[in-house]
Amino acid sequence: MPRTTRIARALSTALVFALFPALAAAADFLPLAVGNFWEYRGVNGSHQVETITGFTVVRGRVVAVKSYAEGVDAGLQNYWLLDTDGSVLLAGFRGQTGSPSWAYEPPIRILPVPPTLGPQPVQHITIHDVDTDGIVNSFDIRIDVLADSILAVPAGSFHAFGAGQISPLPGPTAAAIARRALDGRSLGSSPRLVSDIFPTEWYSEGVGVVQYQAADVMQLVAHGRPTPVATSSWGALKRLYR
């Protein structure tokens, strides 16, 4: 092997090892590989298991399907993807029988990445029916990053960013689902009012949501990940739609 080739290979190897810590440190704020799951327990005793069960296409975008297994949200599916910068985007949800199923255009930016404390831009969103693609309504919304702290939940202590909705859904369509969150989750009998400005979802890098406000305050008990093969499949599937 020529000496110049050996030197080039040695330098390449050194560069890989030099960059490895930085590459390894990067992680998604909502891991979307099939098989990822999160188990939650409510402070009032409710229980929920959420799992990435597959992928589908919503308004031309490949999205991950998060499925809910228990309680008032059993059977709910909501649709997630990550922007090119890693920001967490909500593309819509499919409600249980008799509930609305909506797609958002563009997808709602739930958490900017990197998260920055403070006000975020107002987003103008059009609601489409998932099945017919007909326009249901449109609204403006602002979701701010309201907290950056160490959050203690049953699964442990996590560095987490709390995001909260500042602007509510307007009009009669919103009134019909006033007890549902943007992702279709039930908020129980006491929906949050616009004056109640506090974080409703807490995201931790590499883990996902460690606490959220629904009909109960749900806190992470356990979470798990699939094998790396599933991650590769996610990347391959996304490339088919670019």
Please characterize this protein's 3D structure.
This protein is α+β, with helices and mostly antiparallel strands. The protein has one domain. It contains three helices and 13 strands, in the order H-E-E-E-E-E-E-E-E-E-E-H-E-E-E-H. The protein has helices at 3-25, 171-176, 228-239; strands at residues 37-42, 47-58, 61-68, 77-82, 88-94, 101-111, 123-129, 135-141, 143-153, 156-165, 201-204, 208-213, 217-224. It has a 13-stranded antiparallel sheet with strand order 8-7-6-5-4-3-2-1-13-12-11-10-9, with helices on one face. The longest helix is centred in the N-terminal third of the chain and has 23 residues, at 3-25. It is globular.
**How much strand content do the residues show?**
35-45%
Question: Strand order of the main beta sheet, please?
Answer: 8-7-6-5-4-3-2-1-13-12-11-10-9
Secondary structure: number of strands: 13
| Percent helix | 10-25%
Could you report the average pLDDT, rounded to the nearest whole number?
A: 82
